[in-house]
Each structure stands twice: as C-alpha cells, then as structure tokens.
Design a protein that fits this description.
The protein is mainly alpha-helical. Helices cover 75% and strands 4% of the residues.
C-alpha cells in the first residue's frame, strides 16, 4: 500500500521565512531566559518550594526543545534535512517529550493548587520534596513514553524535486494518521486541559465566598503560564484534529493532495513554529509578575518571586500544632475553613 506523508512539524515548504523568524525569536528570547530561571532556582534559592521545583522542571523542558531550534533553522534555510534519520527522530522526539512534560507539569500545578484549597491540611502534608520528586519522576517517565509514536512514524523522505530530504511523519494507512493525530491531541492537550479547567473551576467555586486580601502573585502566575501554553498550542491541535476528521469522513485520500490538505499542512508548519514560542514566553511572564521584585532584588527577582510559594519545611514547623487544632475546628464547623486557612494557603502556594 502506498505511503502517506504529512508535512514535517517544521517544514521548509510553505512560508519558511515566517517560520525562521518565529523560531529565531523563540531561541533568542527563550534560551537565555530559561537558562536564567534554572540558574536562579539552583543558585539563588536555598530552600526550594514544590512550586519552584515544578517551575525548574518546566524551564528544563523548555530549554530541551529550544536546543533543537538550530537544527530546524538549518532545515528551513537549506530546504533539506542533513542530520540523518537518527537526528530527524531525535529532534522531533525531544519536541514531543517537551510538549508532554510541559502540559503534565501545568496539570500538576493546577491539581496542587486545587488540593491546597479543597484540602489545605492534607495538601500541607503531601507538599514535601519527597512526594514532589516522585511526581516529577512520573511526569518525565510518562512524557518519554507518550512521545514514542514520533520514533515510529517519523522518517526521511525525498522532497518534491527528489533533490532534498524531508523529515516527515510517514503512515502506511489513513488509520495510522488518524490514530497518531488523535492520540497526540487527546493526550497532549484535551485531557490535561480538561483536568486544568476542572481544577480551577473547583478553586473558584470554593473561594467565591472567601476574602483573601493577601498577594496572589504566584496564583496569577500559574494561570498565566496555563493560558500562554493553551494560546500557543491550541491552534496546532485544532489543525491536526481537522486533518484526522477529514480522513475519518473520507474527504481526502491517502496522499492528501487536495487544496484543503495543502492549506492544512502549511498551517500546521507555521503553527508548530509558533508553538516554539510557548517555550520562550514563561521567563517573560516571570519578569512581568515580579516587576517590583525586579527593581528591588535585581538578578535575584525570580528566586524572590518563587519564595512567595512558601517553604514546606518552615510551614510545617510553624503550623504543625496549629493544624492539629484547626483540623478539629474544621470538622466541627465547615464555616471555619475560610477563616483558618488563608495564611497557610497563601504561603503553601
């Protein structure tokens, strides 16, 4: 049976100049920005909170995908892939792992905040570095496993003029394309963001009658990270869902050579380049969220910003006895929870 090739995630066809500009901006902003975040957390923070550890891993995931950008820039400028099949699969596999790690870390942040609001005392016991380490390990293992279809379907193929090579996903049947597209969209976006939406809906419902007067800088920052990831990745996932839907509806053949298919491939190429910006925007968000800290703390502003998430150890020492007493009060009077937990919640996030 004939094989089918969708466009590579970053394609030299279509509008390579636009993709080159977008990737260059992502690399110029994201590489030093995320390196600075990693340095700030590892060097400037003596006591790293759970939130800080998640932000650290998010920055590492972003750095990993940005390190592949020079290879894609070379691909776009030369119009052919010159790094062999191993390099083809490795670069796109790193991109897949980074995408999954980022969305799973964002989901974990949302669940962490939801638990802190719904079960503050349980959350305080669970928010330890040991538990965080196991969760982070599971996220990375899951990301490496979820990205394995890239290794199966990504191959080198001759270009249109047979003078170049493209690093493209190759399928033997339309069912394989549909499976891959649906699997990526569902596991890499739809399911995680359903969890995120459910978590923040629960948080809003529980806090609508509470009066939190203290700073919520970290809470707003997490929401901004989530919205930025959604804004940069949603268009791409919509395109691959449309591609899969057209195949299921029989609106396109195996080769996908119709005008609509070509437009979708062009859109996909541009949108995946835009998605690279999601790996460079987080340091900008940190700078915006910590504007005042930037002026007062200088290069240590990221560390100061994340210190607002609190230190689990110090919270446990200060609040251990209080929590035992407060827990009994909460069990006797549901109305006491909003009054007894704001300080703990603000420090623990």
């Amino acid at each position: 049976m004939a094989t089918n090739t969708t466009s590579p995630a970053v394609s030299p066809s279509g509008n390579p100049l636009l993709a080159i500009v977008v990737l260059s901006v992502a690399l110029i902003v994201g590489l030093p920005g995320n390196s600075f975040v990693v340095w700030s957390i590892l060097v400037k923070m003596q006591k790293r909170s759970v939130t800080a550890l998640m932000v650290l891993n998010l920055a590492v995931a972003d750095l990993a995908v940005l390190l592949t950008a020079p290879f894609f820039l070379h691909y776009l400028s030369r119009g052919t892939w010159t790094f062999e099949l191993f390099g083809c699969r490795l670069c796109f596999y790193i991109c897949g792992v980074s995408m999954y790690a980022s969305v799973l870390l964002i989901t974990a942040m949302s669940l962490d905040r939801s638990l802190a609001v719904a079960r503050p005392f349980v959350s305080q016991k669970l928010r330890t570095k040991a538990v965080a380490g196991r969760v982070l390990a599971a996220i990375w293992v899951g990301s490496f496993l979820l990205a394995t279809p890239v290794l199966v379907y990504r191959n080198l193929r001759p270009g249109l003029n047979n003078r170049s090579l493209t690093c493209s996903p190759t399928y033997s049947t339309s069912r394989e394309l549909v499976f891959h597209n649906l699997f990526e969209a569902i596991t890499g976006f739809l399911l995680p963001f359903l969890v995120v939406v459910a978590s923040y809906s629960d948080i809003r419902r529980r806090l609508q009658n509470r009066r939190f007067r203290r700073s919520r800088r970290i809470g707003r920052l997490v929401v901004l990270i989530i919205l930025a990831f959604a804004a940069f990745w949603l268009p791409y996932h919509l395109v691959i869902l449309v591609e899969a839907g057209r195949r299921l509806a029989g609106l396109t053949g195996l080769e996908g050579s119709g005008p609509v298919d070509k437009q979708l491939r062009t859109a996909r190429s541009v949108l995946i380049a835009v998605a690279f910006l999601s790996s460079s925007v987080n340091p900008v968000l940190y700078a915006c969220a910590g504007g005042r800290l930037l002026r007062s703390a200088g290069l240590g502003f990221v560390a100061k910003l994340l210190e607002a998430a609190g230190s689990e150890a110090s919270i446990s020492r200060r609040g251990g006895t209080l929590n035992q007493t407060a827990k009994g009060d909460v069990e006797r009077s549901p109305e006491s929870s909003p009054e007894s937990s704001p300080d703990t919640l603000e420090q623990s996030q």
